Amino acid sequence: MKITLVGTAYPLRGGLAHMNATLYRKLSAAGHEVSLINFSRQYPSLLFPGKTQLESGTDDPAELRVPNRRLLDSVNPLSWWRVGEILRRERPDVVVIKYWLPFFGPAFGTVARRAKANGHTKILYLLDNVIPHEARPGDRAFTRYALAPGDGFIAMSQSVADDLRQFRPDAPLELVPHPVYDIFGAPPSRAEARATLGLDPSDEVALFFGYIRPYKGLDVLLDAMPALVARRPNVKLLAVGEVYGDESAIRARADALPVPPGTVRLLTDYVPNERVATFFAAADIVVLPYRSATQSGIVQIAYHFDRPAVVTAVGG
To answer: Is this prediction's pTM over 0.85?
Structure first.
């Protein structure tokens, strides 16, 4: 088949780009003719809560560097039309749109409608979220506009499938669990990883990993630490990821805990791809104390590195 992927890709960073790169490689290896249309601008800088939208570029895995065309500007309607026109003329059999946030609904919905105008191309939405974790005005209208031209949908958890039914009750839908990531290389030994991070071999290490946002509940885990330390004096918490929000409030909460010094370590820089394996190799468990969830790429990274995950019973 002739397949075009539309969504985030290298040099943009994060799990969405990682999955699109993996999807590109796997579909290509299966014999399909695959292309990928990336964002020229994903988020305007005023709306982006992090430090940078780009990978570090120092030692990024070759698996991420898939060919792509940076054409789609999330806030420029002319670019939505141009990308749709390109797809209308190129006539792929399927356009796969990675959907995760209503903010992109107007862009994706316009691209999908224009691409389908050739009477041949089908639109398949690969859904990370349908209803966002953090509500904003216009969410439902943008989501409805984006999903209306979809010919089929893939949800990666039952939670997302149920959310889709609110907008498209009779839509063709497949439920396919979130895949395991395989792009972070071979892990170091547990001893080597702990030496790198300054952890003692006797420590019992819990890892919170990924963007730190309110819905992910790091505060819940911090509040649990005194009770955990009382039971298991050697426990250590590594909270690793860039903060989207008030970092000073999180640090103040951690500093105020009645636990021994060094029990909680907050590492709030974005972790380059080449360092991901070190943190998981050093951990005994991975903890996701989320308040809400759909599915999680962090759990899949934990699975890849053979680490158990302790999670809240929410979403997927």
So the answer is: no
